[in-house]
């Protein structure tokens, strides 16, 4: 019965494929993989992120990809998540779902979606236990040393471009809600008087939100983006 229920949900949100050729039902882990890759998991029309936007699923992230989130390979049985802040896997997932994907309410424990996502995460977690991953949030934002422009260009391509598109034009960006970089900073002296533009960008990257302004951009921990790479990125952006 449960599996039939998953199919109903899959059809309701317009996902293809409730037919595996046998009994017409999709196994939970497979449905979970579809949900993982589909921004329509969130009912918000302003959301264009899927889990896969920010998380890879291979043992090490593919080269050329610097994500804000860790790979979720072997994530299901980590001792804790979000640097020890979350002790239940579903809470760790719901943090992303609500804050980044604009999910209005957290996915309930027994919903077909959270069950399927769980089965999918288990299917890519061969180790029965795994240590928690370090996660260091930069609390107080301070300026960083500028680095190498060429390195900064690479960091932009690997960390920012998938959402923001090409520098200066935004070409290929994931959503029009993702601003054009670095041109969006042209207004910052008016919007944030007395604060150096670079510091506004650092605040945004480190916290995902900034100076009382919200947003759904993910935050970058020190593990996801070192201060050195951030300094190179700022140099590339001319800030
Ligand atoms: C906009 C980017 C973004 C999206 C979309 C997103 N996440 Fe995350 N997620 C993060 C960041 C950043 C973290 C914190 C760093 C980390 O722990 O991986 C995180 C953490 C996690 C963690 C904890 C990992 C750990 O070991 O600490 C899990 C599990 C997770 N996300 C699952 C999901 C799932 C499932 C979805 C889709 C429903 C999702 N995330 C969507 C960015 C995102
Ligand atoms: C997962 C998608 C995603 C990634 C990756 C991402 N951003 Fe964003 N970013 C957004 C979205 C969406 C917005 C607009 C909503 C908001 O402000 O959160 C935004 C907003 C911003 C803003 C604020 C623009 C304004 O309104 O003033 C800055 C600055 C920024 N991003 C810089 C970066 C930099 C630098 C990187 C790479 C280190 C990056 N972003 C990576 C999605 C992303």
UniProtKB/TrEMBL annotation:
Cited InterPro entries: Cyt_c-like_dom, Cyt_c-like_dom_sf, Cytochrome_c-type_DH
SUPFAM superfamilies registered for this protein in UniProt: Cytochrome c (SSF46626)
UniProt keywords, alphabetically: Heme, Iron, Metal-binding
Domain Cytochrome c: 147-239
Top-level taxon of origin: Bacteria
Any Pfam family hit: Cytochrome_CBB3
Cited Gene3D superfamilies: Cytochrome c-like domain
Any GO molecular function: metal ion binding
Protein name per its UniProtKB record: Cytochrome Cbb3
Biological source species: Corallococcus macrosporus DSM 14697
